[in-house]
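During the reporting period the student researcher (J.K.) took over the structure-prediction task from the postdoctoral fellow and processed the backlog of single-chain submissions. One of the processed entries is reproduced below for the supervisory committee.
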Amino acid sequence: MPLTCKIEKDFGAFKLDVDIETEDEIRALLGASGCGKSMTLRCIAGVVKPDNGLIILNGITLFDSKKRINLSPQQRQTGFLFQDYALFPNMSVAKNIAAGVHKKDRSRKTQIVREMIASFQLEGFAHLYPAQLSGGQKQRCALARIMAGQPEILLLDEPFSALDSHLKWQLEQELTAMIACFSGPVLFVSHNRDEVYRICENITILNNGKSELTGAKKDIFKNPVTRAAALLMGCKNIVAAAAEGNKVLVDDWGFSFVPDSIPESLGYVGIRANHIQPAYEALSRAPVRFAYEILYETEGPFNHIMTVRKAESNCQPIRWEMPKATRKAIDDHPHELCIQQEQILLLR
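J.K. obtained the following structure tokens:
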């Protein structure tokens, strides 16, 4: 296992408690702001010292609280890309890259800098300073400085957060191509599920400082398992639920249903806003079907969004997203919706 990270750090009001094991892959650390993603990277890099635990990279112990091992950041061979890139403002591109070269390679510094400038398409910019660079050029310079140090792991802390939205797509493609050539593990921190889905194959969900769920991206998107993961996956309808015999009671939405199985720790159910159907479109009778009333609605550029609830009730509202053509047809039919059983998420 190239990286094992099992650490704890108590900050008083916040406690970090993560357990991550990853191979040579691009692994996402996905979570809401303040959940401990960036702090986990800082602990691995040696910028922050955990209270307890173990960090091992490619068989080398970087940190072990029991054995009192705590290698310095310079000894860890980690490549840390900070959110703001942390380039030295008083150094040119060439000197910034040169600052990343290890002491053992100082005799080859000029050659390494030249290679990095070519590899990261920075020809013609070597003499410029960070203030003279675009967002994409700054990112490439920061990555070139990292790779000049021949890291064994890449730690990418929300690499697109400092970029304008119109630049993100191009730079995401560039970054993906660059890290695809890296042979070691990559930890990619983000709170953007779409970025994570495009770039990574496996995901670790962090929630309130704790690594809550790990798995393949397609599995987690299909079945997020926990309430926190479902929110991160974009599920906009989540309410409390309870098991009663073989039934699941969803009092907040005014219905119950019988699933194939019920997880022991069931506490919530979730329904994606685009997984709701008008009853007249359903090909088979759904286990959840009821008349609804429209509370309010709005039109987006490509879809229509309605907030509805069970008719003649005080139930919690449900967000329903649909194609514009569906909205046009709805008023020609009874206001009745349905939800297929396989579209209901059972969450702990």
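The committee noted the following: The chain is about 25% helix and 30% strand.
J.K. will present the remaining backlog at the next meeting.
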